[in-house]
Design a protein that fits this description.
This protein is α/β, with parallel strands linked by helices. The chain has two domains: about 1-200, no CATH class; about 225-535, Alkaline Phosphatase, subunit A (3-Layer(aba) Sandwich), CATH 3.40.720. Helices cover about 50% and strands about 10% of the residues. The chain contains 22 helices and 15 strands. β5, α15 (about 320-325) and β6 form a beta-alpha-beta unit. α2 runs antiparallel to α7. The relative contact order is 0.12.
Length: about 575
């Protein structure tokens, strides 16, 4: 009984809560001392400066529970940071991470949570426990004495003085140090503000881009019938595609196409997040600056102006991202996942059905279709049926490195499914006996416990080779390759050159279709003789274009690119 009273008294102690909340607040900073690649002094300042501020703040009220709620935004950012450190192993909360919260649909969250259970459970116990104790603190009649608070305030100010000196020294000796980028939680708060700003700008898109026009026209007569298709894969990495050099023949049907396809083996994306990479493919912003996305329309507007019937068929749910905005510019828009229940994910056969419906109704003329797949998104086993299991065993007990062989089998099965999906679309297009072409690429790749880092999934604040190397495949019908033989020959001649999918897809589609418009750049079209190899860029978290050697890639990533004879930087 006495022990129980002692324990109860301990947890009712405002002093205990004072130190507990201080520890909760500074915990991510301590963790990041060991995870970040910034200089040692920067990591020391990252602990000392926030600690001093938190320490001082905790003395402003006699009840620590009240300070917990006054600092709740920081508590939320701390909890978010702990989960992301568990998932990615490094880096502060990125702007894209905040935006992913608003653009990831419920089904994706349901599929991802299983991989985050340990981190979520830890955060729930620690910070959830803090919430419970805050109510105890507020209701408790006991308050921190003025003597205790004054002494702790003096301690905080002493630590603050030390932190300011260290910060000044760090500014002097580390020329790469940026306060709002390198110190947590200041970077987390700064990125949160940027995410809100971008969300608002995205919501105002229809107004800011309302008067935009490409002044587009087709150089070919209206009487010429032709069909062009862009297939955007989801989380398909080139490393696991047979046509890109993978040891497994995961693409037997595409491999049998021979000269009917052009395969670009040295292709990378400019972003490892869907909500950013897909708009790059559906607009010319990669040739300009990313923020121009907010003031100009996308590829459907170009083809609409050029007299094409346009369709956007997506096997993903609307998620309030720019994909919704750009996709909705098509004349025919379908988001197949809109009406599905959580956990009931449709595989890409639904897109094949929607595509076949449009082809059956095709009576000639000009048509442009974009298919946005769900292809290889985790959970991989949900992307194909039991009868389509090529590689086994593919059961995934849990998303851990120890189960990598099964995970790879399941992932490779999604690639086989994509191979079948693409070749069936090509077959339907060929049956039209009109010039038609298809471009396939993916938004980004995926980490699958590939090396000692133990990374899994994508959208990490710092990209990896596996997230950036994506396939780029161009197919031409018999009629297209005959009628536009020069363009096809140019395409084939450029397959060995390094390309950025984000840069070339928009311009290549316009070039192959003979569409001229503002913002079209022949030098960025792989089907044009004017095509030039340019330095490949990565769009970082602040939407800045950075060269590949300034994208955060590690030695392991560069080695993988070198192994595959890819250009770096």
């Amino acid at each position: 009984m006495k022990l129980f009273k002692k324990i109860k008294g301990l947890f009712l102690s405002q002093k205990l809560m004072f130190w507990l909340y201080l520890g909760m607040l500074v915990l991510p900073n301590i963790m990041m001392f060991f995870t970040e690649s910034t200089g040692t002094l920067t990591r020391v300042v990252q602990i000392v400066l926030p600690l001093a501020i938190y320490w001082f703040a905790m003395t402003l009220n006699g009840k620590p529970g009240k300070m917990f709620w006054w600092l709740f935004l920081l508590i939320f950012i701390d909890a978010f940071q702990v989960v992301l450190l568990y998932l990615f192993g490094e880096s502060p909360i990125a702007v894209d991470m905040f935006l992913n919260v608003t653009t990831t649909n419920v089904t994706e969250v349901d599929e991802l949570l299983g991989n985050l259970i340990p981190a979520v459970a830890f955060v729930f116990v620690l910070y959830g426990g803090g919430i419970i104790l805050s109510f105890v603190s507020i209701k408790n009649k006991e308050v921190l004495t003025s003597v205790f608070r004054k002494f702790q305030r003096k301690c905080a100010m002493c630590i603050m003085a030390i932190a300011v000196v260290l910060l000044g020294v760090n500014f002097f000796i580390d020329k790469n140090f940026v306060f709002q980028d390198d110190l947590f939680p200041f970077n987390g708060c700064y990125n949160f503000g940027l995410s809100v700003q971008r969300f608002v700008k995205g919501n105002n898109y229809l107004e800011t881009a309302q008067k935009f026009t490409y002044n587009a026209h087709s150089e070919r007569p209206d009487s010429v019938s032709e069909v062009y298709v862009l297939v955007i894969g989801e989380t398909v990495r080139a490393t696991n595609m047979g046509i890109c050099g993978y040891e497994r023949n995961t693409t037997p049907r595409l491999s049998a196409m021979g000269s009917k396809i052009a395969v670009f083996k040295d292709a990378i994306t400019m972003s490892n997040t869907t909500h950013k990479s897909v708009p790059l493919l559906l607009s010319p912003v990669a040739s300009e600056k990313f923020d121009s996305l907010y003031t100009q329309r996308g590829i459907f507007t170009v083809f609409n102006e050029a007299g094409y019937k346009t369709a956007f068929l997506s096997n993903q749910a609307r998620n309030h991202s720019f994909i919704d905005n750009l996709g909705s510019e098509a004349q025919d828009v379908v988001f197949a996942q809109d009406n599905t229940t959580v956990g009931n994910v449709l595989n890409d056969d639904v897109l094949l059905g929607l595509f076949n419906q449009r082809i059956k109704q095709y009576k000639g003329g000009k048509m442009f279709i974009v298919l946005h797949c769900y292809g290889s998104h985790f959970k991989y086993t949900d992307r194909y049926s039991d009868t389509e299991r090529t590689f086994t065993p593919d059961e995934i007990p849990s998303a851990k490195a120890e189960h990598r062989p099964n995970i790879i089998n399941a992932y490779d099965n999604t690639i086989v499914k994509t191979d079948k999906f693409l070749t069936e679309i090509m077959s339907r297009l060929d049956s039209l006996h009109v010039p038609s072409a298809l471009i396939f690429t993916s938004d980004h790749g995926e980490d699958i416990f590939d090396d000692e880092r133990g990374r899994f999934l994508h959208a990490s604040p710092i990209p990896t080779y596996y997230q950036l190397h994506v396939p780029l495949v161009v197919w031409g019908s018999d009629a297209y390759r005959t009628q536009y033989a020069a363009k096809w020959e140019t395409l084939q001649s450029n397959t060995c050159k390094p390309v950025s999918t984000s840069m070339v897809v928009f311009h290549t589609l316009l070039d192959m279709a003979g569409v001229k418009a503002k913002h079209y750049v022949p030098e960025h079209a792989v089907s044009n003789e004017a095509f030039k190899v340019t330095p490949r860029m990565y769009v970082n978290d602040h939407n800045e274009f950075r060269t590949m050697d300034n994208a955060g890639l590690k030695k392991l990533d560069v080695e993988q690119m070198s192994k595959r004879h890819m250009m770096y930087p």
